[in-house]
Amino acid sequence: MRRSYKFLLRPTAGHAIALTACLDDHRALYNAALEHRRTAYAKAGVSVRYGDQSAELKDIRAEDTGGQGRWSFSSQQATLRRLDKAFQAFFRRLKTGGKAGFPRFKGKGWFDTVEWPRDGDGCGWDSQPEHPSATYVRLQGVGHVRVHRHRPVRGTVKTISVKREGSRWYVILSCDDVPAEPLPATGKAVGIDLGVASLVTTSDGDLLDNPRHLAVSAGRLARAQRDLARKKRGSTRRRKQVARVAALHAQVRRRRLDGAHKAALTLVGGYDVIAHEDLRVTNMTRRAAPRPDGEGGYLPNGGAAKSGLNRSILDAGWGVFLTILSYKAESAGRELIAVNPANTSRTCSRCGHCTKENRRTQAEFACRACGHGAHADVNAAINILRAGLALREAARAA
């Protein structure tokens, strides 16, 4: 299996200055390469490819030995590949009729990661299992930076990335051949329904609470944003306030991630088979479409209510939770089954009658045909489990 490990860096003041310079120079390389492509096509109709720009790196490094020349050649190639992937995605969206999204220039707040594609080429991971507090990562042009390695690294380190999040620096290791750690079989299967009131509701009737981290921190974030709006652009105080706002958002993100890990671990530890809804969170959280009235104005479209629902869904972190659940299930040897979510909340789990009137309220389900009553999310989770087991049997019979 391929897995990623993320560790906090403990850079010295000198290391932090060098890491910032490394990030700025790679951002400048990205922007210069983007300008090169745009200008070549606009003035000469020539499409510049990754191979063309990679071949020019040698001359760029020779001319700027104190800038671009001090960093790893392979990391600069990775930055050019990043731009090339952005163009590939742009052309792919054009062909499929989606929103094109031409690659943009990266400002300081929009370029936060540098990648070294191969361990040992401009970088090195120094892992000492017996001395976890003495772990370092070596980066060309930066030096040996101390790593807070809170867990062992398994498998073979393939790529190393450094990421800045606010005032913190992290190292991300992508490893191949990570051994699985299967858990003992439980002989139990479960269906789960994701929601806003409860993050997870199981077919056994268990409810995993949704902490609503963003809503809890909304007051502090609002005050921090108001303070930011009063600061003069370009001032030192504004820069410090931007860092405070970013730190609050990072805290919310870390808490949400921690909660998702704990919820996924609870499910993986208790069940062999887990069926869940195959949700398209991006589509579900799109802005409500406008409704023209034909006279130059617009009709009510429920945009305010939809925005509130979108905020609650994103605060719950369904996509993050399903991603974490997926790789934890793979590592533990559990089976994960994605089920079509259509009508799972409207169908009676006892008689199979399906109508939207069955769900009286957000939490109450009462079948109009047989009179069966239950918690609405528990009823949906039972339907999801049955659909998942049916898909499982069909796959085995095929």
Task: Describe the model.
It contains 11 helices and 16 strands. It has helices at 13-44, 50-55, 57-63, 73-96, 213-216, 218-229, 236-270, 281-284, 303-316, 318-332, 376-397; strands at residues 3-10, 113-116, 123-126, 135-139, 143-148, 156-165, 168-176, 189-194, 198-202, 207-209, 273-277, 291-292, 298-299, 335-339, 364-366, 373-375. With 398 residues, the protein is an alpha+beta fold. It is globular and about 80 Å long. A hairpin with a 6-residue loop joins strand 15 (364-366) and strand 16 (373-375). Helix 1 (13-44) crosses helix 4 (73-96), helix 6 runs antiparallel to helix 7 and helix 7 (236-270) packs across helix 10 (318-332). It folds into 2 domains: 3-176, no CATH class; 189-212 and 251-288 and 306-397, Nucleotidyltransferase, domain 5. The strands form 4 sheets. A 7-stranded antiparallel β-sheet has the order 2-6-7-1-5-4-3. Strands 10-9-8-11-14 form a 5-stranded mixed β-sheet.
